[in-house]
């Protein structure tokens, strides 16, 4: 692997700055919608999960990069806010899956619409970094 060039450093700086700006923007939008940033990520982890029954706490923990007990507390707060609910699995009563409530689905949909629009704004700045890391991507 070659040593990074000055241009590589500049692209990495642009990328990391763009990611940080996007994350800050996303956190502000979550708060404006009455959610914490982690609750927003929790709702997304539930809705985006591939199993329609919803993720388990363990699976949500993996998405959120949190410890199990931290995820349980986050789910408790989101449940108290009316955004999520727990459902026991039909086959195994010990297994709990997470589902969005209508309020949670409504908040997530509004935030996701905003987020997708915002990502379109960031694409021109981030695409060159992502596609040119090896220096052979299309221009």
Strand portion = 5-15%
User: What is the overall number of helices?
Assistant: 5
Q: What is the makeup of the main sheet? A: 2 strands, antiparallel
Q: Which structural class is indicated by helix and strand composition?
A: mainly alpha
Strand order in space, largest sheet: 1-2
Report the mean per-residue pLDDT as an integer: 89
End-to-end distance: 22 Å
Radius of gyration: 19 Å
Low-confidence stretches: none
Number of strands: 2
Verbal overview:
- The chain is mainly alpha-helical.
- Helices cover 64% and strands 7% of the residues.
- The chain has a two-stranded antiparallel ribbon with strand order 1-2.
- Strand 1 and strand 2 (96-100) form a beta hairpin.
- Helix 2 crosses helix 5 (102-131).
Layout of strands and helices, then pairs:
Blueprint: H1 6-32, H2 37-47, H3 57-64, H4 68-80, E1 84-88, E2 96-100, H5 102-131
Antiparallel strand pairs: 1-2
State the gist of this model.
By secondary structure, this protein is mainly α.
Features:
mainly alpha, 5 helices, 139 residues, 2 strands, two-stranded antiparallel sheet, 7% strand
């Amino acid at each position: 692997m070659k040593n990074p060039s000055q241009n590589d450093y500049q692209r990495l700086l642009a990328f990391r700055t763009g990611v940080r700006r996007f994350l800050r923007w996303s956190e502000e939008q979550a708060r404006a919608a009455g959610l914490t940033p982690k609750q927003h990520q929790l709702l997304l982890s539930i809705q985006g999960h591939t199993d329609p029954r919803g993720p388990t706490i363990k699976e949500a923990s993996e998405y959120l990069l949190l410890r199990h007990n931290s995820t349980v507390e986050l789910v408790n707060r989101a449940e108290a806010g009316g955004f999520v609910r727990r459902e026991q699995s039909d086959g195994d009563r010990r297994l709990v899956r997470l589902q969005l409530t209508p309020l949670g689905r409504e908040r997530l949909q509004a935030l996701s619409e905003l987020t997708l629009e915002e990502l379109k704004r960031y694409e021109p700045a981030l695409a060159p970094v992502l596609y040119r890391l090896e220096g052979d991507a299309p221009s």
